[in-house]
Each structure stands twice: as structure tokens, then as C-alpha cells.
Write a structure and sequence with these properties.
The structure is a single chain. By secondary structure, the protein is an alpha/beta fold. The chain is built from 37 helices and 26 strands. The strands form seven sheets. Strands 1-4-5-6-7-8 form a six-stranded mixed beta sheet, with helices on both faces. Helix 11 (about 330-340) crosses helix 12, helix 18 (about 505-525) crosses helix 21 and helix 26 packs parallel to helix 28 (about 770-780).
Length: about 1000
């Protein structure tokens, strides 16, 4: 008996103890359907004919899991044979606990092309909703998830053409480590080029300590009512993205705490969930769950419009039309508050509209209209509870609604020591503490918890000290700062893979910096024709001049509001120039009069950094965004990794600003980069102590990445281990010797050893504070040329082992099965298609250039990056056809390379057609249809081979032989894009 079987049997036994019914008789698709039919008919008190049941299956089975998930949660209608409607649900949606819960194992999904067996599946009322994959190896979650992705991509997997389309959750466990994540359509359910995946979670207790073991996970997560609650209450279907989210444990505890507090009428409360932890989703979910509470008259979910990007606005407006638009249209809000419609019980509104509705000085007398609500129980949930308007709003709410309950979410609570601090240069603003307003903390998930869970990143802080003696804030200081940013930006942002925000102390400073960058970069272009200027934009609010939108935006921009009272026309003129430059750069047509559209465009363009330069040219993106107060709270972009700071920040203001940089992507972004251009170390330490609750040394250990000397020591250790590994195999530690490693076990050992070398090198590559000696030490440990050659060998070896892993699956050696290649560590933001084309053009020239490379250097550079893995061989073959001296420009290189590729493809297609007795035209048409739809259709393959008039056995042999030759060609043409259904032949 294998260990995996033992784990499976123990799990089934445990689920049986939790009162699941073990159905060992359900092992096939037909048995699954028969069981579902019995449960469906019992639940809906109906007897279907066979024809009706077949029709029902046809209607409910949908390859779109998002649509299926909606179907699972709603009351639906089916037209019977006698044309009468049957209103039905698939499960008991009123009380999920009262459903039948069953466990099945080793379910087989057989088709002509595949034979899948799934470890353990949980059924609710006969509907498969949870799949549990068990492992015996210490397989990384990424590896296990990739296997599930592969299952879903295989033809005949059942997820698109059977009741498996209702699958909601996946659980992966090797008994000691357990993870859960939600199902999704392929768009949100695949590793992309950057190896990003939907969030994967571990279960946790209320104090945020983790539950890793499968036994405790089963008891806590898979008990019948808990699982029913998880699927019905704590999964979110995001309409605008057609994406399914499952909530994290701390989000669930927060929602439960609020609901309990309301049900027991225990006053107000606040949730301390750190920036980047999904506060908006949690607070929004809490408000929607109050719809069915009869004791509550209304629940208002209050957001700040200026914090919402376009997508979030769309999501809220989908929930309730116009809820976060039309800032000044308070009449609609008042009408909804007075409405008795069920749809208006939960209202999404902005803090701005709420303020106007409760303003006793408002000439529209909204407050008088709200009189009928005065003594009703009304709940207010504030998405971010520390707004400058909040004090007035809080007072008005408490006075008008004596029975109101208020709940606030904050990433940075206000404590006594940070209730008064400088928010405007030279002035002081005071805040009440969070407890003064909200009485008690209901749940906490601090930045320390989030860092430990790897939900957000640590920080690397570089305190800049200019070489010359300058006074902070003067012209020389600003010049030194601007020069430092230009010099350090490539390193800080991993060669523009990411982008940066630059926080300045005032609008005047922002304007001066903008002009300084323009001047410095123009000079650099004159000096060096190869210099590519940073794309720098700037945003600050204009003088309000009676514009209510601007006034509302400025309520939480104290510095900008104050600055605009002094020489407003100069600031307006400067902003006009900045917007005009922006329009020229990005081919837009913004005006200061529609400032909000400009502000939204700026936010979107910063987020567009997520696209590769091949998909979205770099000229459309922003490298550095100069701000004053804007974007330092509430703005999220995973591809923003750097904050330049030339202003005084303290406590929660400091934490919020720094937290713009620490969203998690993958190992190419190991930390948030902060470059501080003022003496702020003491303030940083105070903020860390206050918000971590630990002494400074411990706080630093949690919040900050290791200083450069420590990482260099780890890098050295990784290089030494690589040396030792190669020597233990009787080989020198050189790239050329890797090919002499014998067996998959040895090659897997090299993959694991060199991956660690690259991991630390990626981290060091983004350190902006390395001293010259440290740089020399890093280079001496592994010279750049050797490192590049090692990377090239790694990619070749990893590709070979990845093919082995994919082809043999569980039959591959344990060492190969466990490998997680992390190709993203070897990708480069610099070495993309355009860059290589430019270098090839320079290579053909006779004239010398510092960017000119030899043929060998070019080929080595190509091999060292995973970006162009699928095109590398073709580009190298093309380079070998070119002659130095026969000068070609970039356009000629592109056309020449495309022609070269077309000729190679045509020759390969002709060879495959000849080998398999097909016509070139029919094979070309077959390939064209696949590439046009990016879908492989098995029926079309049957049509292609039909002229050969083969029996089914011979045809199957012929199909496999043809596809063995065709798959590599199709993948090469696809350039790394996924061809759905091709996995069955890989």
C-alpha cells in the first residue's frame, strides 16, 4: 500500500466521522450523474423523465465555471416536456447545512484522448464542488497547482463537459502542508509568463497562526456547515473580471466579527487589516451579508471615491447603479435610504455624498427628508475610517442616528502617539484615536502578519546621503536627488520591469522636480544618443475654484489644499503645462477642467506596467510618477515597486506611503524599494515599533530585508554550494561541464543549486545602496559572463526536465517530480524582442558602438534569459546567416527574420506532410485553424487523416506519430501562448 493511498483512506475516514457519506460506488461519470439525478429530484420534489434529465444536464453543464458558479447559487428555471416551468435549485441555497454531503474517490473521466483519475471529491447534493489532490512528496504548492492546471487543460478532463464544471475549490495537501484556492476559467487559472497564480491560502486560526496539517484542516474547514458557509458566504464572484475569489481566513474572521457584533447589538467596532490585505473586499462582503438581517433597517457601505480606480467603481456600480459616481447627486442616496425595496437595503455610497446628506447647512434640507429613519437601526461600514472629513461625518451620524452602529476598516489605526503629527509642512493636524470613534478592535491582521504570510513584501530602505554638502529642500538638494533617481532607477526597478512614485513635500517642489528632470534628461540625450529618458509624469490637484469634485478630492489632500491657496494661478499654469506634455507623450487629450479624467488615466497607466513591452510598448507607460499627497494612500499596483521620498512622513502616513510598493507578484520582486532623501530613519523606526508592537530590532527583522552584507554572504554560500555540488559529481564548476552531469537526479540537483544562486542575485540586483567594494565582491564570486552562461545552461536543462515532468507525470523520478523551475527568475525586463533586434542591427554595422556585440556574445545573451525561450533557436539560426559589414537597419532585420521563420516553417510543414503521407495544403489549413483559434480540436485531426482510409487502431497510431512531430512545431509558432487541448499529446 502506498503512502498516498494511506493518506487518502485516512482522509475519507475522517470525513466519514464528520458525517459525510462515503460513496465508493461513484467512480464513473455515469454513476456521478445518476447520483446527482436522485439528489436533484428529492430536493426539488420532482420526477424527471430520462429525456428531461438529459435536457437538464445539457442546460446546466457549462464550460464557463463563472457561469456555473452563478447557477449553483441561484434559483433557476427549466421548461419541462409539457412546457410547464420547473423552478429549481441545484443545492439547498437557503440552508446549505441541510444538503447531502458525500465523499467520493478515484473518480475516472475517460475519453478517447485521456484517462483522468481524481483523488478525492466532495459532493454537495450530488454536485462536485471540492477537489482534494494528495501528495506524498514535499512538492512546492506551485508544482502541485501546475498539475491541477494541466488537468484542466487536458481534453476530456470533465471540468467543461460534465458536472465537474461546478467545481468551486481545490485543496492540495501532502499531510503536513495544506493549501486551498478557488477554481476559475483559464484566464484566471494558469501560470502566465510571470508565473503568477490566483492567491493560494493556508487556513489560520483567529490569532492568524497557521493550520498546516491535513487532519486539523479537515476538522476546521471541511465540516459540513463550515464548507457550506465557505461556498455560500465567503466566496465572491467578481462580475467585471469574471473571476471567482475565495476569502482569506482573516477576512472571514473580520466579517464574522462584524455580523456577530450587529446581531448582538454590541456597539461599534473596527477592523485593523493592513494595507494590501484586501480590506475593501472584506468590508463590502460584510455589508452584503446584512441584507437578510431583519433587525437592520439599512446598511451603508461608505467608500472614498477618490481612492477607487475605474475597475473598482464599475464593480460597485454593478452592485448598485451610480453608487460611486455623481459625487454631488445626493438626492439619489437620500431616495435609496428612504426606499423600502429589498434591493436598497444595502447601499454603497461615497463619504462625499454621505457628508452632503447629513449636512444641516445644506440648502436642500436632505436631513429633514431622512427623519423617518432617525430612530431605526442603521449600520455604517467605512472602507477606510481615517479621513479628514470623518470627524464631521461621525458627529453628524451619531447625533442623527442614536441607534446607529459604526464599523471602520483601517490598515493604520490612530493611537495616542500618532493622533497628532505633521501632515502639512510646518502645520499640525489632529485626529481622534481609532478607539475614541469605534470603541473596540474586532479583529487584527497587521503588516507583520501579512509579511509572515507572504501576502505583502518586506521593505528595503536606502537612506540617501548626497556626496556634496547640501541643505534639505534647496535647489542643490533637489538637483542631487533628481540625479540620484536617474542613476538608480534602472537598478531599483529591475531595469524598468517595475515603476516608481516620487513623493514630494509640496506642489512647488513637484513642479520644480518635474522641470529639473526635463532639463537633466534633455542634456543626457545630447551627450549620448543611446540614452533612453525616463518617462516622468506628475499629478497634483489644481485650485478648486468652486469645483465640487476638486474640493472633495482635496479634503484628504491637506498639503495640496493648503498649497493651492498661495499663488493659485502659477500652480494652474504649471499643471496645464504638465498635462500638455502628458498629452504629447501619450497621445491623449486631457484638460485641467476635467482633472478627474486625467487622474484616472494616470492611475491606469501606472497599472499598465503589468504588460510586457511586446504586448504594450514602453512608450505608453510611466517610469516615475511625481506626486504630493495623491496616490500615497489607497492606490494599488503590483508592478509599482519603488517609492522615492523627499518629504517628511510619520506614523500611519509613512506606513501607508511605503505600502504602495509591497504588493506580491513573484520572485522578481523580492521587496518594496524605498529611497529616502531626508533624515527620516528615526521616524521610520517609530512607525515600525508602533505598528508591529515589537521592539525596534525585532520590528526591523520582520519588516526589512537583510542588509546587503548579509545577502552577499548568502549569495556566496549559494555559489559555494554550487561548486561543491559540481565537484561531488567529479566536474569543474563551469557552465560547459553541466552537460556532463549523468542522470536526471544530478541534473535536478544542478537546477536546485543554481536556482538559489540566481534568487540571491536577483535580490542584490535591486539593491540601490551597494558600495563599490561590495559590487566587486559579487562580481568576483561569479563573473557576469560565467553567470550568463550558467543561466543559459540552466534554461536548456530546465526545459528538458520540464518536458520529462510533463510527459511522464507520476512515473518520472521523484527528483524530477519535485522540481519547480521558476523560469521567472531568469526573465529579463531588458532582453526583450525589440532589444535583441536592435543589437542584431548594431552587430551588422561596421561602425563601432559600445552596445555592439560579437556573434558569440549575442547568442550567449539570448540564452541567458527565459523571455525568448521559444524563439531563441530561430533567432540564433538567423544571426548565423548575417554578415558583419552588410549593414541592416531594425526594420530590415525584422522583415528578414520573419521571412527566415516563414521559410523554416514551410520547410518543416512540407517535411511533416511528406513523412505522414499528407498534402501540404491540408496540413497548412489544419495548422492555420489551430493557430487562428488557439484551440486544438481532435475532430479536425480525424478529418485531416480521413483521406488515408485507416481503421480506428491504425488511425490512432498514425495520430500519435503525427502529433509527436507536430506538437513542437505548433508550440514554436505559438511563441509561448497556450493552445487549449494540446496537452493531451504533450
Amino acid at each position: 500500500m502506498t503512502k498516498e493511498q494511506q493518506i487518502e483512506e485516512e482522509l475519507i475516514e475522517r470525513l466519514s466521522d464528520l458525517k459525510y457519506t462515503y460513496r465508493k460506488d461513484i467512480r464513473t461519470k455515469s454513476a456521478l450523474e445518476l447520483n446527482f439525478r436522485q439528489k436533484f429530484e428529492a430536493l426539488n420534489r420532482v420526477k424527471l423523465t430520462d429525456a428531461e434529465f438529459d435536457k437538464l444536464l445539457t442546460e446546466i453543464i457549462n464550460p464557463d465555471v463563472f457561469k456555473s458558479s452563478n447557477h449553483l447559487r441561484k434559483r433557476n428555471t427549466f421548461i419541462r416536456e409539457d412546457d410547464t416551468p420547473l423552478h429549481y435549485t441545484l443545492v439547498n441555497i437557503k440552508d446549505w447545512c441541510k444538503n447531502d454531503f458525500e465523499v467520493i474517490n478515484q473518480l475516472r473521466m475517460n475519453t478517447e484522448n485521456s484517462n483522468h483519475r481524481y483523488d478525492v471529491i466532495l459532493l454537495i447534493n450530488g454536485v462536485p464542488v471540492v477537489q482534494i489532490e494528495l501528495k506524498t512528496l514535499e512538492i512546492s504548492p506551485n508544482r502541485a497547482m501546475q498539475q491541477i492546471v494541466n488537468y484542466k487543460n487536458d481534453i476530456g478532463n470533465g471540468y467543461t463537459n460534465s458536472l465537474m464544471c461546478f467545481m468551486q475549490l481545490f485543496i492540495v495537501s501532502n499531510q503536513s502542508r495544506t493549501f486551498y484556492f478557488s477554481n476559475n476559467n483559464n484566464k484566471h487559472f494558469a501560470f502566465n509568463a510571470d508565473e503568477q497564480f490566483l492567491p493560494v491560502y493556508k487556513l489560520a486560526r483567529k490569532n492568524n497562526s497557521k493550520i498546516d496539517g491535513l487532519e486539523e484542516f479537515t476538522d476546521k474547514f471541511l465540516s459540513k456547515c463550515t464548507l457550506g458557509e465557505m461556498i455560500s458566504r465567503y466566496m465572491v464572484l467578481v462580475e467585471t473580471e469574471q473571476k471567482i475569489l475565495v476569502m482569506r481566513p482573516y477576512q472571514i474572521y473580520a466579517v464574522k466579527a462584524i455580523v456577530d457584533c450587529i446581531e448582538q447589538d454590541r456597539g461599534n467596532g473596527y477592523i485593523w487589516h493592513t494595507t494590501g490585505s484586501g480590506k475593501t473586499l472584506t468590508s463590502f462582503k460584510a455589508s452584503t451579508l446584512l441584507k437578510d438581517n431583519d433587525d437592520i433597517e439599512k446598511c451603508l457601505f461608505v467608500v472614498d471615491r477618490k481612492d477607487l480606480d475605474r475597475q473598482t467603481r464599475e464593480e460597485f456600480n454593478k452592485f448598485q447603479e451610480g453608487s460611486v459616481e455623481e459625487n454631488t447627486n445626493t438626492k439619489t442616496l437620500v431616495k435609496r435610504m428612504l426606499s423600502t425595496d429589498y434591493a436598497d437595503k444595502v447601499i454603497v455610497t461615497t463619504i462625499q455624498k454621505l457628508g452632503l446628506a447629513l449636512d444641516t447647512k445644506n440648502d436642500k434640507n436632505y436631513i429633514e427628508h431622512l427623519e423617518p429613519l432617525k430612530n431605526k437601526r442603521v449600520v455604517f461600514i467605512f472602507d477606510e475610517c481615517h479621513r479628514s472629513q470623518f470627524g464631521e461625518n461621525h458627529k453628524a451620524i451619531v447625533e442623527f442616528f442614536p441607534k446607529a452602529q459604526l464599523f471602520g476598516f483601517t490598515g493604520t489605526p490612530i493611537f495616542e502617539e500618532n493622533s497628532s503629527y505633521k501632515t502639512i509642512e510646518g502645520e499640525t493636524a489632529s485626529y481622534k484615536t481609532t478607539e475614541d470613534v469605534f470603541q473596540k478592535e474586532l479583529h487584527a491582521y497587521t503588516i507583520t502578519n501579512a509579511i509572515e504570510d507572504k501576502n505583502v513584501l518586506r521593505f528595503h530602505i536606502d537612506y540617501f546621503k548626497p556626496e556634496e554638502k547640501v541643505t534639505v529642500g534647496d535647489d542643490l538638494h533637489k538637483l542631487a536627488v533628481a540625479k540620484a533617481i536617474i542613476d538608480k532607477h534602472d537598478k531599483a526597478t529591475h531595469y524598468k520591469r517595475f515603476n516608481a512614485v516620487f513623493a514630494t513635500a509640496s506642489i512647488n517642489d513637484a513642479i520644480q522636480y518635474y522641470e529639473t528632470f526635463k532639463k537633466l534628461q534633455a542634456e543626457k540625450v545630447k551627450e549620448n544618443e543611446d540614452y533612453k529618458p525616463l518617462q516622468i509624469a506628475c499629478v497634483f490637484s489644481p485650485p478648486a475654484e468652486g469645483n465640487k469634485d476638486i474640493q472633495q478630492i482635496q479634503e484628504d489632500l491637506p498639503q495640496e489644499k493648503a498649497d493651492n491657496t498661495v499663488e493659485p494661478n502659477k500652480k494652474k499654469e504649471a499643471l496645464n503645462t504638465i498635462i500638455a506634455d502628458y498629452n504629447t507623450q501619450y497621445n491623449t487629450n486631457h484638460r485641467i477642467n476635467d482633472f478627474d479624467l486625467y487622474y484616472q488615466d494616470v492611475q491606469q497607466r501606472i497599472k499598465d506596467q503589468k504588460y510586457t513591452n511586446a504586448d504594450y510598448a514602453h512608450k505608453n507607460k510611466i517610469d516615475v510618477m511625481i506626486v504630493v499627497d495623491m496616490l500615497l494612500t489607497g492606490f494599488d499596483s503590483k508592478y509599482l515597486n519603488t517609492l522615492y521620498v523627499d518629504k517628511n512622513l510619520k506614523y500611519h502616513g509613512l506606513i501607508q506611503a511605503y505600502s504602495r510598493t509591497n504588493r506580491v507578484i513573484n520572485d522578481t520582486k523580492p521587496y518594496g524599494n524605498i529611497l529616502v532623501f531626508r533624515d527620516q530613519e528615526e521616524e521610520v523606526n517609530k512607525a515600525m515599533i508602533r505598528f508591529s508592537g515589537a521592539k525596534i530590532e525585532k520590528a526591523k527583522e520582520i519588516w526589512l530585508v537583510d542588509a546587503a552584507p548579509k545577502v552577499i554572504a548568502k549569495y556566496k554560500d549559494a555559489v559555494v554550494k554550487l561548486n561543491q555540488f559540481m565537484q561531488a559529481k567529479g566536474l569543474d564548476c563551469s557552465p560547459s561541464e553541466v552537460s556532463n552531469l549523468k542522470g536526471d537526479e544530478a541534473r535536478a540537483g544542478f537546477i536546485n543549486a543554481f536556482k538559489e544562486v540566481q534568487r540571491y542575485k536577483t535580490q542584490l540586483d535591486q539593491y540601490t545602496d551597494l558600495q563599490e567594494k561590495q559590487t566587486e565582491t559579487i562580481e568576483a564570486l561569479l563573473p557576469e559572463d560565467d553567470l550568463r552562461s550558467f543561466k543559459s545552461v540552466y534554461i536548456d536543462t530546465a526545459k528538458r526536465l520540464q518536458a520529462e515532468q510533463s510527459k511522464k507525470g507520476n512515473k518520472a523520478s521523484e527528483d524530477v517530480q519535485q522540481l519547480d523551475f521558476e523560469f521567472v527568475l531568469f526573465s529579463s525586463a531588458v532582453i526583450d524582442y525589440d532589444y535583441i533586434i536592435g543589437l542584431i542591427a548594431k552587430y551588422t554595422q561596421d561602425k563601432p558602438s559600445k552596445h555592439k556585440m560579437t556573434r558569440e556574445e549575442l547568442i550567449n545573451l539570448l540564452g541567458s534569459s527565459s523571455n525568448l525561450m521559444d524563439e531563441r533557436e530561430g533567432i540564433i539560426a538567423y544571426i548565423n546567416t548575417l554578415e558583419v559589414g552588410n549593414a541592416l537597419n531594425e526594420k530590415e532585420i525584422r522583415l528578414g527574420y520573419q521571412k527566415f521563420k516563414d521559410e523554416i516553417s514551410a520547410k518543416e510543414i512540407q517535411d511533416i506532410a511528406d513523412k505522414h503521407s499528407l498534402t501540404e495544403d491540408s496540413l497548412n489549413a489544419f495548422i492555420y485553424e489551430i493557430m487562428n483559434r488557439m484551440i486544438f480540436d481532435g475532430e479536425k485531426l480525424t478529418d485531416l487523416l480521413e483521406p488515408l482510409e485507416l481503421g480506428w487502431k491504425d488511425r490512432r497510431v498514425k495520430e500519435l506519430a503525427l502529433m509527436e512531430d507536430l506538437v513542437p512545431l505548433l508550440n514554436k509558432i505559438a511563441l509561448g501562448r497556450e493552445i487549449v487541448g494540446l496537452n493531451a499529446y504533450e
